[in-house]
Every structure is written in structure tokens, then in C-alpha cells.
Amino acid sequence: MKVALFNEWQLGVVRDDRIYDIGASLFEERPPRDCPMVEFIKHYETFKPIAERLLADAPSYPIAEVRLRQPVSRPNKIVAAPVNYLSHKQEMNVLHTARGLGFFLKANSSMIGHGDRIVLPGVKAGRRIDHELELAFVIGRRAKNVKAEDAYRYIFGYTGLNDVSLRPDGEHEEERCLRKSFDTFTPVGPWIVTGDEIGDPQNLNMSLTVNGQVKQQVNTKYMICSIAELVEIFSHVMTLEPGDIIATGTPDGVGPIRPGDTVAITIERIGALANPVGEEIG
Ligand code: MN
Questions:
Q1: Model pTM?
Q2: What angle do CA 68, 105, 268 make, to 5 degrees?
């Protein structure tokens, strides 16, 4: 199932090129206090057959005519793997990989959806700001001290993520958390594809283009720490909650984005996440 948030944060199911507004009927008796996607994730086994039945009568719209939002409005956290492809380790000329570094956090306020504008911050004018092509996964059940062999039981689904990053320049060496947490620096989407429909998430081709030109291209089988290992490593430190977003790292080919660019991520079996780039005025 492809699930999305759209317009006024309504919960929708995507089929072909239409989105079906199932939230109103699904939550008729008990509207969620929090993000409808997190509510859907928590009760997926119950909601899945109901959602499928609702498709016949739900109001629907052409995808192109709605505003897609980030598929989780405000996750409890965004956890990201630093240096998780050897090709990216080589281009950055760094010593350690995700296996030693573990993870960093991105502010959940940095998220935007498909079509939303990445805004380059005026306070860092002149600094290099890069795109990073990443597969992300979404936690389905509370996870603590999970072993890699059990990891997939805790994953709800998969989506695209652009880990927009301010680069250190020799003079400035801010923590990763700062460099990657500016507002709009985490485009996510366009929707979540549930685990049962993704096939093997460690065998997905993905690519990133800037203004239509391919800049990054990889298959997810080349990750250093696998998706299952990331769940183990992260959940031994922190409790992962339903709706948490995990970014799995970027391959080589990272490069600067500039005002006027359009950056687009395409992932096999998921779809395309595209965002225009602008800059902060004044
Ligand atoms: Mn990254």
C-alpha cells in the first residue's frame, strides 16, 4: 500500500495516479489527536483491510492536483546514518563509516514534502550546501534492543529522503546535527510504500538529478550497514517509536544545489520526490 499525507494533512492511499482520502471515514469515531499517519502506522494490521474497503467510495483526486506533505507530519525523531556507502566515504576522504560513527539526528522541523521549496539560509550565504540521495524507512512498532535478524518486524515502510547538508569548509566545522537541521533541509516522500509491497529493500535502484541531470545513482545493496543492522545499532541506544524516520546514507556524487535548481530523487518501487531550490530573502 502507498500511503500519503496531503493538503490539510489528510491521510490518503495512492493508487495509479490518484489519491484516495480515506482518513475522514477511517477515523470517523475517534479522530487522532496526533499525526493521522502515526495513528495509521500503529494500527496498520487493523486499518489495512478497512482502508482497502474504503477505496471504493472514498473521495479521490488526481495526484498532480493535491499538495503532498511529508508522510509523517512531525515524527518523534529523524535518525540518520553518516557515511554508509564506501563510494561516499572515498569522495569525502573521511576515516570512519556508519559502523563506527553510529548516527546523527536531524531536527524534525527540517522536514518538507514533495514539491515544497528547499530554502538556502541567508546566514550561511556563500557556503556549499549539497543534496544527498537516501532511502529512508519508517518505524512501525516501538523498538528497543532489537536484533538485526528481527529488524524487519519493526519497519512499516519506505520512502525517499534528501539529506540536504551544509558542508564544512576548513574554517567552519559545525556538528552534523547543525549542518543538516536548517528548516527545509529534509525533503521526505512522496509517500510511504509499506514493507509488504517493497520487495527487497536492499536491492532498489535509486538516483538523484539536478535540473534533469543525473548526479547520484546507486543500488541499496551497497550500504555498509544494512537496514537491519541500522535498526540494531540505533535501537540499542534509543527507543524507536512508530513514525520515526531513519535515513540510510548517501552514495557518491553529492554536490551543491543553488537557487533556481530542481532536485529530484527517484527510487525503484517508490516513486519520485522533487523539490525546487530557493534562497532566504532579507
Ligand atoms: Mn546523509
A1: 0.97
A2: 45
